Amino acid sequence: MTTKNQRIDVNTATVEDLEGLIGIGHGKAEAIVEHRNKVGGFQTLCDLIKVPGIGPGVVDPNRSMLSCSMPANIKTPRSKCERETRSTVALYGASPECHWLPGTTRSRQPQTEQLKIKSEPGMRLRCHGNEPEAPESRDWIKLCSKIKTEPSASSSSCSSNNSLESTVCPLKKETMDSYVSPVVNPYKPPFDNFDASSESEDESDTEDEIEAGRKIVLNSSPSPFKLRSRIPVPVLSQAIGKHFMKRKSEQYPDVILKKKPCHLQQSDPTMRTFGTIKTSGASTSTPRRRIPSKQNPPPELAHWLKVFQGWSNAERLLALDELIEQCDPTQVRHMMAVIEPQFQRDFISLLPKELALYVLSFLDPKDLLQAAQTCRYWRILAEDNLLWREKCNQENIDEALVFGPRVRRKSLSPLVSSPKAPCPYKALYMRQHQIEQNWRTGSVKNPKVLKGHDDHVITCLEFCGNRIVSGSDDNTLKVWSALTGKCLRTLVGHTGGVWSSQMQGNVIISGSTDRTLKVWNADTGQCTHTLYGHTSTVRCMHLFENIVVSGSRDATLRMWNIDSGQCLHVLMGHVAAVRCVQYDGRRVVSGAYDYMVKIWDPDTETCLHTLQGHTNRVYSLQFDGAHIVSGSLDTSIRVWDVETGNCLHTLIGHQSLTSGMELKDNILVSGNADSTVKVWDILTGQCLQTLQGTNKHQSAVTCLQFNRKFVITSSDDGTVKIWDLKNGEFVRNLVSLDSGGSGGVVWRVRCSNTKLVCAVGSRNGTEETKLLVLDFDVEEHFGLNSALKKL
């Protein structure tokens, strides 16, 4: 057993000694002892790693508590002796011609063994293989051949203390069995008294000094210094230590060395010590060259630049190419660091404000918002009010569209010019963008439910501002608040069902099966005028300013002044019921069940053009002042020129009755009883999109509305769908009745910028008649909504 402070020798330790170490249990301790007995002992602690189950993680924590003595039955391999020889020679400059004494092994020599070396004065060791062999070298070889030594008593024994170790180096293949011991002085370190002046000593050393340096006596007396390494270190005297050695591979090319020894180039006259540099630096050093800079350029630089400036553009490019090829990577990176900023200049900040705004006007609003985050000056430019007003105009956004018709620019400007809204038109644009996102993906709030027509059919629906007007076959009209969902007024007076209506401001006009038109005040609910003249049901009407044109089943059209209630004109010419009518203040266009479309001059009450081409009843009309679009039961849609009456295009694609159409600019959207919706360009007659697919309506399309982004469609299948106008893709269902498919119907839809009003019910009592109001408005936005509510 070992004491607490005593190290454990791995070559003599028992299982009980080892199992108490860190990470070594009884099993690993037995494995170590078994492996030690099998290999005959460990040479170093690192040999423990060869034991199965023992790794560096076990050896390293216990290294301070372990020791390893060389086992007596282990002989040093030849290759190891050769490596030790080369390491010793390279470090201390011993002669590569030294050999072991005949009859000895290549293990450590005992300390009691004495070796004597005799040589002649002037002996020198060299290590440069490319130099001719000097006479001193030949003398040294002769001297080595005469060395005699006493036989070793125990050549294979090895002490565990720090004794010096002999080395081996073969001289020639034919003399491999002759060995000589290296020259060692155990009492003097090799460089204890070495200084710069020792190199300048001449070779006038006395014979006694040289002889003392060449005689080496190995005895058991303690050494004045100890080496931690077990590699044999020959200690030379000053007389021999100042000489340097010669490589064995250079002198004897037949010997293969596994590791090249280092040169000790102390005979090189160019080599200096720190002492010589310090003493001679003041007299021999040359003045240092200053680092070139713009203030201190090289003298040749001005001439080089002058030559470069005299070249043509092609010559300069060629010179630059050659120059780049000659540059190091660090120099190329320097060029990049200098050149790149030249192409990253903030040209927007360098331009006048007017030109900078003109450049920014070509950016999309999304890019403008990102540009505003670049720097403070870009933010000022990107939030310019005129710039965003142009963006609003491009998107057809105005105050009336976003906030309603009551809000005008004069009333809006002081509101949005507050510190919370430094850019009014940007606020308008951002609000409109958020509203569009609500239509697309926003959560559909619980719709307001407006009930009041019992189980009757809602035949007509109007939505303007915050008022909703619904007409029914129960002979009444109702006025609702879109904000609260309450019924504000019930307009009673007709004696028949209401089948058509129009609203403008606070004026409501209605047509009924009682053959009359009535003008109502929406604020008071009073009937201001009753217009008599038609002899059958008033089936359609169109209001323009204070003139309303009505069409009846009596095949006539009448024009009325709603302020005075006077009939201005009667237009006769159709031979069947008039189903649809349009008026733009200059021309009247009508479609009837006689397959005809007529263009009228109301002032002269004459028919300017009769548009023939349809082969069945005309059910729908659209008129923009230049073009007339008519939809018929013959499944076709025709585009006419209003001035000439010529048919410009016949739009073919639907399979049934075109029940509803809407025209804006040159874009026409048509809904058909075949459950499809199509988008057309009336200028080219091309069908741009067909709104169908797996999410299409499952029954006839009853009504539709569209704006610049979306198409809203309703159907007899009880759904209201929203589609993307540009690509025709289905967005989502806005309304889906539980009774859809079993009788639930959406009869009419009307939309504003932020709200959707749907008239729903059924023909078999499965769905209650009601109005649904869906709100897609945003919450407080730049403080505008709360301010507008005060108006």
TrEMBL record:
Quote one Gene Ontology molecular function term: ubiquitin binding
Q: Which InterPro entries match?
A: Competence_ComEA_HhH, F-box-like_dom_sf, F-box_dom, RuvA_2-like, WD40/YVTN_repeat-like_dom_sf, WD40_PAC1, WD40_repeat_CS, WD40_repeat_dom_sf
Task: Report the domain of life of the source organism.
Answer: Eukaryota
Report any one BP term from Gene Ontology: proteasome-mediated ubiquitin-dependent protein catabolic process
Keywords in alphabetical order: Repeat, Ubl conjugation pathway, WD repeat
Residue ranges, compositional bias (Polar residues): 276-286
The ranges of region (Disordered) come to: 190-209, 268-297
Q: What is this protein called?
A: F-box domain-containing protein
Which species does this protein come from?
Answer: Owenia fusiformis (Polychaete worm)
